Amino acid sequence: MEKLLQWGIAHSVKNDEDAAEMRLVAEEAKSQAGPGQKLDPAVLDAILGKSDAQLMKEAMDVIVNEANSLDDRLTALDNLEMLVEQVDNANNLQNLGMWPALFALLSAPEDEIRQQAAWVTGTAVQNNSKAQDDFMALDPLSTLLGLLANSSNQQSNETRSKAMYNISGLLKHNPQAVNKFAELGGWQALKSALSDSDKTVRRKAAFLLNTLLLQDAPAPSGLSSATGLAPHAGTHFPNDAPPRPSTTDGSAAAAFEEHRITDELLRLLPPAGTPDDADFAEKATRALITLAQETARRKPEQKGRLPDEKKRKLRKMFGELERREAVEPGSLERLGIAKSELEDLHDALA
C-alpha cells in the first residue's frame, strides 16, 4: 500500500505544492486507517484518480436520473462525450451496458437532451467499427432520420445537425448500414436536407453525399462483392462477426440516379442556382466531381454508371466552371477544385 501511495503521489501532481498537499492527504489517510487496515476508497480516488469507466458510469447515473436538473444532465452528457472520444471508452459503452440508455435519450422529451445524446453517440461511432455495430444492433437509423426530418417541428437546428453527424458516423466505411439507410428512405432524406433551412444541415448533407460516393467503388475483380474479400476458410475465428463489405459497389451512384440527387445538386449550384453559401457550394460541387470520377472507373455492365443525359449535364456545368475561371481567375481555387481535375473529367464524361 505504501508503494501504491507513493506512485499515486508521483503521477497525480504537477508541482511541488501539489505534491506536498498530496503527501499530507496520504499521511492523514494512513493514520486514520490504522495498522493493517484498508484505505478509504474516496481517498484512493483522490490520490490515484478515477478510471474512465467509473467516470462514465457516474456521468450516466446523472444523465438518466430525471430528478436532476437539466443543466446537470447536460453537463454530464458533455463530459461523457469527451470521454467517448477515446476509442477504448467508446468500445466500453457496450461492456458497461450504456447503449440502450443512450439510444432511449434520442427520444427524450427535452430537445437539449436529444441533441446531446446524438452528439455522444455520434462521437462514439466515428471511425469505430465496433461501436458502429454495437449501436446498429439497436436499429437507431430510423430514430435519427426522424430527428433529421423534423416532421413534428420539435427539433432545433442544432439537434438536427447532430442527428446528421450521427448518421454520417454510422455510414462511414459501413456498407451494411448504408443498405439499411436506403431501406429506410435515407437517400430521399439526404436529398431533402440539401435544401434545408439550416446551412449547417445543408453542408453536412452535401459532405455526406460525397463521402458515400467515395466508398462506392466497384468491388475489386475476383473478390466477392458481398464481402469485398476473397473467401478463405480460417480468415477469422468461428465466433467472429463476418467481414464487412469493403464497398457499396455502385449502390450509392445508383441511388443518386433513382432519387434524382444529381439533378437536385445541379439545381442548387450555378448557373441554375445562386447559393450564398460558399462552403455548401464547395461541398456540393465536390460531390458531383466524385460522381463523375467514380463513373469513369465502372465498366458498362457495372452498377452505378452515369446515363448519357447526366454526363451531358455535368459536362455543361464543369464547362461553365472552366469559363468562369478564364474570366475570374481563382474561382476554382475558392471551390477547392484544381483545374487539372476538370480537365481529367473530359474523358470520363465523354
Summarize the structure.
Helix content is 65%, strand content 0%. The protein is mostly helical and 350 residues long.
Oligomeric assembly:
single chain
Label the overall shape: elongated
Count of distinct strands: 0
Q: What is the average per-residue confidence, as pLDDT, rounded to a whole number?
A: 85
Order of helices and strands: HHHHHHHHHHHHHHHHHHHH
The biggest beta sheet reads: none
Helix content: 55-70%
Briefly note the structural class of the backbone: mainly alpha
How much beta, percentage-wise?
under 5%
What's the helix and strand layout?
Blueprint: H1 2-12, H2 16-33, H3 41-48, H4 52-64, H5 70-83, H6 87-95, H7 99-105, H8 111-124, H9 129-136, H10 141-149, H11 157-171, H12 175-183, H13 186-193, H14 199-214, H15 251-258, H16 261-268, H17 278-295, H18 308-327, H19 331-334, H20 339-348
Helix pairs in contact: 1-2, 4-5, 5-8, 7-8, 8-11, 10-11, 11-14, 14-17, 17-20, 18-20
Written account of the structure:
- This protein is mainly α and 350 residues long.
- The chain is 65% helix and 0% strand.
- Helix 10 runs antiparallel to helix 11 (157-171) and helix 14 (199-214) packs parallel to helix 17 (278-295).
- The longest helix is centred in the C-terminal third of the chain and has 20 residues, at 308-327.
- It is elongated.
- Residues 222-236 have low confidence and may be disordered.
